[in-house]
Amino acid sequence: MKPEPSEEPGPGRDARPDPEGPGRTDPERPRETDPERPEERGAPIGRRVLLGTLGLGALGVLAASPLQRALESFLAGASEKDPTGLTGLLPNGGGFRYYSVASSVPHKTAADYRLTVDGLVDRPGSYTLADLRALPQTRLVHDVQCVTGWRVPGTPFEGVRLSHLLDAAGVRSSAGAIRFKCFDGTYTESLTLKQARRSDVLVALRMQDKPLGHDHGGPVRLYVAPMYFYKSAKWLSGITVTEDVRPGYWEERGYDVDAWVGRSNGRDDEPTS
Predict the structure, then answer these.
(1) Is residue 22 part of a domain?
(2) What is the pLDDT at residue 7?
(3) What is the DSSP string of 216-264?
(4) I want to staple 202 with a disulfide (CB 3.0 to 4.6 A). Which of 90, 91, 159, 194 is the partner?
């Protein structure tokens, strides 16, 4: 947890007010054009194209659930090739938004990526990308829900269950939570130990049946299926077992520590699991 996401203003970026309440910032609102849809300034579009696109958005709102989900899936693919950015303005337009709280994020490859596991464990360790790929893989398919409202239906994630890495490290009896660090140098997240051991929490290596790209938090990110996407920290680099929960980047700025979709952050979205 964008992005979604997580799926986020931060150092070197302009924070925007959160419509959910004063003093809050929007963790899943892009600062600039989504790099997955390269900007083409001044690209002309015809009146018929504009009206047709907006018409599809209205149809998605009015149609029954199966048709709406099909429309969202179509727009998710279309948004990645949309130089105008109009698909991002549609309600539930599908497709991910790009978010980062750092002014820049280094790229990691299989040659230089490392994931550390430490803290209240008997066997601290470090994993290369090859090490993680060699472990048993779990594939999950759930909707991704951003706290700002957009949702990408039926998104496959694949990776190592977090519980597997915790068992391998030997979590001590005094432990009660997990803190996650990211190689952007800024973002952090946390889960309780009970939450972290859920079968739908992954150290993810693949998304949408392909390796995680940099913009989606690759080569490795956290994926917490039943929570808002800001909990699924991108660019994961460290897993530290702690005694108590330490609020993450957005929790320190007013967001819920327990970010269950459908009953947190003042929202009533349909649950994702």
Answers:
(1) no
(2) 46
(3) GTTT-EEEETTB-GGGS-SSEEEEEEESS----TTGGGT--SS-BTTSS
(4) 159
